[in-house]
Write a structure and sequence with these properties.
The structure is a single chain. By secondary structure, the chain is α/β, with parallel strands linked by helices. It is built from 9 helices and 15 strands. It has helices at about 1-20, 35-45, 70-75, 100-105, 110-125, 145-165, 210-220, 250-260, 290-305; strands spanning about 25-30, 50-60, 65, 80-90, 95, 130-135, 165-170, 190, 225-230, 235-240, 245, 265, 270-275, 285-290, 310. An 8-stranded parallel beta barrel has the order 1-2-4-6-7-8-9-15, surrounded by 5 helices. Strands 11-10-14-13-12 form a 5-stranded antiparallel sheet. Helix 5 (about 110-125) crosses helix 6 (about 145-165). The longest helix has 20 residues, at about 1-20.
């Protein structure tokens, strides 16, 4: 009986271990919130499978740039799997243009330039002592020519990354028509499951709900099999008098406490919601994700066959995922 009991216990342990390890959860840390990001990462005892450092952007000469203090910061971080994020933001003097497709059309305009740009990304990734690349170029698929150049570039970068033993993840927006394009084999394709509602929307609501998650993952069947998703922490605050503003989970909870509000959890999203009125009689509506929300979203994508999740982002969210 003792032997049987031991076998059963061992079997349960192995099943539990397999269930725990079948899901890979990573997270982003950003250059403007380095210390808080690291602090939150440490709260999980470095539990995330990988950390992606955000990131490199373009200067006015259309070369990739990383603030030197952030580059040194990345090099010092103790994780076996670090990713280096590259975005198509451009800094021109005092002005920053976010998600700029004009710069992409230029740096990807010829085969020679695409090769050169891929080599530039590889060089920065190696300088940062990272083992992988997150290519986070957005608004690419709004223009057919840009999309064509970009997919050719992804194939070039994937081959060069593989030759250097670097992993490549390509971040995609959920509104892309994945069935319309032929995506190169090799990279992991990570689809952003957020901004269902946000600063772009006049209507308040959660960054994701379960219907949105299911619909987007169904669309992802047209991507190569190596797939993942990204969820966004925190939330957003709306009012009719002011522009919507993204806020962290801690900021949302502080507002609820300040105005003596008890957030309500919505069943169709798992997100928390409350409204309040400030001293100027301005009414605000707040939606945000806490640990329970994130865990519910992750459970949903696991049910739908997704095993790779990245969280945007660490910092002011109290170690948002429990390990």
């Amino acid at each position: 009986m003792a032997i049987i009991a031991l076998v059963v216990i061992c079997s349960l342990f192995n099943v539990s271990k397999a269930e725990k390890t079948e899901l890979s959860v990573g997270a982003w840390i950003v250059y403007w919130d380095m210390e808080k990001g690291i602090s939150e990462w440490q709260e999980t005892r470095y539990g995330y499978e990988d950390i992606s450092f955000f990131g490199a952007y373009f200067d006015e000469d259309e070369h990739l740039f990383v603030p030197q203090d952030f580059m040194e910061f990345i090099k010092r971080q103790p994780t076996r799997q670090k990713y280096f994020t590259v975005v198509n933001d451009v800094v021109r003097g005092e002005k920053t243009v976010f998600k700029d497709t004009k710069v992409l059309r230029e740096v990807l305009s010829s085969a020679k330039k695409r090769e050169r740009h891929a080599e530039e990304i590889i060089a920065l990734t190696k300088e940062a002592k990272c083992k992988g690349i997150d290519l986070d170029y957005e608004k690419v698929f709004r223009d057919e020519k840009t999309a064509e150049l970009y997919l050719d570039f992804v194939e070039i970068l994937a081959k060069k990354a593989a030759a250097e033993n670097l992993q490549l993840r390509v971040i995609l927006e959920p509104n892309v028509d994945f069935a319309k394009y032929e995506f190169p084999q090799g990279p992991m394709y990570v689809v952003m499951l957020y901004n269902l509602y946000g600063t772009h929307s006049k209507v308040d609501g959660p960054k994701a709900d379960f219907a949105f998650i299911e619909k987007t993952i169904d669309k992802m069947q047209y991507l190569p099999l190596n797939r993942g998703v990204a969820f966004s922490t925190g939330g957003c605050r709306w009012s009719e008098e002011k522009n919507p503003k993204f806020i962290s989970a801690q900021q949302a909870e502080s507002l609820a406490k300040q105005y003596k509000k008890t957030p309500e959890r919505k069943a169709d999203s798992g997100a928390l919601y409350f409204s309040y009125e400030d001293k100027n009689k301005t009414e605000y509506k707040v939606w945000y994700a806490d640990k329970q929300t994130i865990s519910g979203w992750i459970d949903k994508v696991k049910e739908l066959g997704i095993k790779n999740v990245i969280l945007w982002r660490l910092g002011d969210n109290e170690a948002i995922y429990d390990f």
